[in-house]
Amino acid sequence: MNSDPTLQGLITAAYGRSFRVECGDGGTRECVTRGKRNDYACGDEVSITAQGSDQGVITACAPRRSLLYRSDQWKQKLIAANVTQAVIVVAPLPSFDLEVVDCCLAALVAAGIKPLIVLNKSDLPESAKSLTALTPYTALGVQLLQLSARDSVSALTPRLAGERSVLVGESGMGKSTILNSLLPQAEAHTQEVSASLGTGKHTTTHAKLYHLDQRSELIDTPGVQAFGVHHLGVEELAAAFIEFRPLIGQCRFRDCRHLNEPGCAIAEAQAAGQITPRRLAVYRRLAEMNLKNERRSWE
Ligand SMILES: Nc1nc2c(ncn2[C@@H]2O[C@H](COP(=O)(O)OP(=O)(O)OP(=O)(O)O)[C@@H](O)[C@H]2O)c(=O)[nH]1
Ligand SMILES: [Mg+2]
Ligand SMILES: [Zn+2]
Asked: With left for phi above 0 and alpha for psi between -120 and 50, is residue 112 left, alpha or beta?
């Protein structure tokens, strides 16, 4: 007789090879994986074999409705599963990199996850400059919200209702501070940014899911330095740049990669002022890099 029951659960924390699973029986168990498979993420719905009241082994994972991940040339890093929305958090201090926003946005579009940009720390005088830098995204139809998590997050609350959202961004932008303001009992660790380095200190070390209310969840994640999108092939990458979408298929060559081919509709749109040169340059750099990797993997 097998006395270890199978339970259904939700991964609420992912620490490398171990996972915290909130189970259908109301218990929370620290779980490991079986065999080589450990590609689970916060938000995954899993079956586990319970071992006692507080441990278990993950045995299966339900098909995902969405998966957010980043990747470099060597590996993929899962961020969150089954999220409906991602909140890209930026702040004027420490300064943020627009390319991280571009890459993150591309990954979200490709994964079918709704983006929302939050400009946090709007109490700081430098935020006016940050807002200007972000206007191209609002022109693309991406929602943008200004906040000061230290003062109030009430503008964000209605945006999270009924959604499973994930906070993403560079270190020190205030993701965990936003979480704590929404849910004081989360008591997530936050930390002053480094004045000498002008960067965050990578305070949050693993992804964790919190229940805001019965139907809204929020996942806090560790800050990233870069948001690699090596998993997107060149065609997919072009389609993940929102402003390129209506132009795809209109280039002279059907297999145009929008690098420097003649008759490229996207290059023409840029020349006509309809696409910002910076975004096209980012796309081209990423596309070149991904093509190089594709070639390498064929060799
Ligand atoms: N002035 C100001 N500072 C803020 C605000 N929100 C957060 N901070 C500060 O910014 C610093 C970093 O905040 P965290 O919440 O730890 O940042 P994080 O994005 O979670 O960083 P990682 O966990 O490293 O990714 C802390 O000192 C916060 O107090 C804000 O609205 N205004
Ligand atoms: Mg944090
Ligand atoms: Zn083209």
From this structure: left
Ligand 1 pocket, residue 150 CB under 6 Å: yes
Q: Which value, in Å, is the radius of gyration of the alpha carbons in the chain?
A: 21
Number of structural domains (the chain) is 3
Mark residue 238 as left, alpha or beta (left: phi above 0; alpha: psi -120 to 50; beta: remaining). Answer: alpha
β-sheet bridge partners, residue 152: 148
The CB of 203 under 6 Å from ligand 1? The reply is: yes
State pLDDT tens for residues 248-297.
999 999 999 999 999 999 999 999 999 999 999 999 999 999 998 877 77
pLDDT for residue 1 is more than 50: no
With the most atoms of ligand 1 within 8 angstroms of its CB, the residue from 183, 191, 197, 201 to mutate is: 191
Q: Classify residue 229: in a domain, yes or no.
A: no
98, 200: one domain: yes
The ligand minimizing its distance to the Cα of 125 is 1
What is the residue range of 35's domain?
A: 6-61
